[in-house]
Amino acid sequence: MRIAFFVMLLAGGIFYSYIAFVDLDFMTRTGRLGPGFFPRLIGATAIVMTLWALVDELRARNATDGALRQWADVAVLVALSLGYAVLLRLFGGFAATIVFLAVTLSVLNRGQYLKNGLIAVLVPVLLYLLLDRLLNANMPPALITLPL
Known about the structure:
This protein has 148 residues and is an all-alpha fold. The chain has two domains: 1-63; 66-148, no CATH class. The protein is 74% helix and 0% strand.
């Protein structure tokens, strides 16, 4: 089942990348990064990561994992993602991403406190710098402003 999922995910990533490379310009007429820069980066990364996961799954095909535990992780991740959607609307992209990553990593990556904390803080900071400062695109706004 996981192999079929990764193959479908790979097909979606290839289609997404095709659209990003064919329909969106990499540079604007003024020489700045165009609307195709970020989608191309995301599409290529998605293809590479999906291929990596597919190869890893094919190598570990004979290993037996508890299917019930996997579905429990899926349910937890879906619930956390719904909570992230609510937080995103209430507190904006930066604060919601920090909270979401901190909670998700503490649930799914237990015992790795330093690594989880660094990821929960550094990923939103890097996204903010990339989107807001470099690409001049705003992160999602908040309904409730926090004193950050």
